[in-house]
Amino acid sequence: MGSKNYFILLFLILLTSCMSVRKHNEQQKVCLSPEKLKEDVDFAYSKIKETHPQLYWYISKKDLDYKFDSLKQTINEPLTPLQFYFKLQPVIANIREGHLSLRIPSKRISKKEIKALEGKKGMFSRFEYYVKDDRLFIIGNKDSIQDIKPGTEIITIDQVPVSDYIRRYEKLISSDGFNTTFQPYYLKDVFFNYYVAEKGFEDKATLETVYNGEKKTYQLTRESKSENDLKQDKENKKRTQEKKVNDYIAFNNSYNRNFKFLDQDSTIAYIKVKSFSSDYSARFYKETFKKIKNAQSSYLIIDIRNNYGGSLEEINNLYSYLSPKPYTLIKPSQVISKSSPLKTNYFRKSNPLQYILRTFTYPTFFFAQTFSTYKKDGKFYYKNRSDRESKPKKDAFNGKVYVLINGGSFSASSIITAKLKNDKRVVLVGEETGGANDGTVAGFYSYQTLPNSKIDLPVGVLLVQPNITFTHTKKGVVPDVTITETMQDIIDKKDPQMDWVMKAIKKEETANQK
User: Region Disordered: start and end of each range (predicted)?
Assistant: First the structure.
């Protein structure tokens, strides 16, 4: 391709991108007729039924049909896509599949606006939050913004009660099944995602708060970053070997994976995984378990609290360092039909250049996906490396294992936890997991767009279940030892779950010495 043609193509891509942002934002302001919205309701339900392999796991077909029909009866006036989202998503949440959710429609920002935001600090994202019932608390303020104390409750934002937002947002969220612990963990993380989707990226906000019975009002502003801040941002983006292996997260200047010994003689090893991202995970576990074996550690604590899941490949690899014998992590993954893997919208969000490139690679994708399914006993399954027998690694840990879990342990975190509990390999400490004990529907997605409102609807394609004897409780993985953590524990940097494990280890060590 000549340089002239290259620059013409580049210009067309940029122009298309700008036009796409403008067109999308204009679409968000348009009120759609009831007839068009009802078409979108029918489209959404038909695509879910067409693709989702375990749709009626937690709700009967009769009840779900009734909810969708009732929804259509309530749509009797024009609505914007955002208003429509707040009517449709609560119905989808009633399916009780945590991975199945509409993407909230929101204003897109241009590259120029993104550049401007990169030069400013976050307004709400600089705090850490805690949700209890219909209340929102600030529990972390590492930059000491206006000296707001941890434990401060936010009563209103720009004179709108926070409880109104929480009651509206919690209807949008579901865990897998009838779990009760997931919602507050997830809502504290996505509250301001929803808020910004509704309000846009504003530069100021007024918070009415209360702390120890004293009410105060704060004016938050989106501050510009200093030269040192920008320099630090640039430094944080550099990918050193340590950052790669421990999966560095520049957003909050932390590592996704951490390993350390908790005592001087290396008897107790500790691994913290915030997300099963798979990036450099094989190397991390290989190096970590070699260190643990060389130290001849007797105890291992694995902390997957607040871990929303991720890669099956990573949890299968982690399990290979914990199992004393050959194992199979998950059961064969069921799909609705042989064509299900082809419904992933291969050309989704392609710019003109990407579209051209993907056109050439589509035949490879088509044949790979076509031959990835097989039929057995009248059902269709998708070939997955994690449903084959795996062998333990040579540095597999043979000592006692404790796993810390809570309501924020979801998806892949629940899969590995359920497997470890079933195989009686660990002691689980904490709260019931946010993900279901008996599996979930995810794997990869069929990406749909509702034809009139243009709202995105990703639908999970694979039924992923741990290779266990199912409990049929329709709830999360229940810990062997239930210990909850309060807001005050977090503020005071106390960890009652970890404290219990350390006391149990000390007690066992004392008994072994007698």
Answer: 222-241
